[in-house]
Design goal:
This protein has 158 residues and is α+β, with helices and mostly antiparallel strands. It has a single domain, classed as CBS-domain (Roll), CATH 3.10.580. It is 46% helix and 16% strand. The chain has a three-stranded mixed β-sheet. Strands 4-5 form a two-stranded antiparallel sheet. Helix 6 crosses helix 7. The protein is elongated, with a radius of gyration of 19 Å. The chain starts with a helix and ends with a helix.
Length: 158
């Protein structure tokens, strides 16, 4: 099975945000769309012709934790810049790992596990054509195994 098969089934809708938008905007969009990551693009939300980065729930959590010292108090620098007013560009991951539609699900499962990433932009000829999550990958594998299992049971019955 290939990533293009997953994208056909789930669709190629990608939710994105501009780098100049705030963390509050990112949190709102993550919740509104029920997703764990947004692609950061210059032309968001109308499209994602130029992918700049990705911001995920994990990025927000790590950045928030970094604002607090060991005692849990907020350092003066953090107090001067309210958490939700920070720019997406300040927190986004810019060293992106991407995939292509022709990559196999097994290969991508290994990559995502090894690199400990949960969301993977899918690019074709440099353009964003979708995004897959580790949940999408696991679901595809489970569906594939269920079909395989059914074929084996039918074969044994004959």
């Amino acid at each position: 099975m290939l990533l293009q098969d997953i994208l056909k089934a789930k669709g190629s809708t990608v939710f994105s945000i501009r780098p100049d938008q705030t963390v509050a905007d990112a949190v709102r969009d993550l919740v509104q769309h029920h997703v764990g990551a947004l692609l950061v693009c210059e032309t968001a939300p109308s499209g994602c012709d130029h992918l700049l980065g990705i911001i995920s729930e994990r990025d927000l959590l790590y950045a928030h934790a970094g604002l607090h010292g060991p005692s849990g108090s907020v350092p003066a620098a953090a107090a001067a810049c309210p958490w939700m007013a920070r720019r997406v560009a300040d927190l986004m991951t810019t060293e992106l790992i991407t995939a292509s539609p022709g990559d196999s699900v097994e290969q991508i499962m290994g990559l995502m596990t090894c690199k400990r990433i949960r969301h993977l932009p899918v690019l074709a000829e440099g353009r964003v054509v979708g995004i897959v999550s580790i949940g999408d990958i696991v679901k595809a594998q489970l569906d594939h195994l269920a079909v395989e299992n059914r074929f084996m049971k039918d074969y044994i019955r004959v």
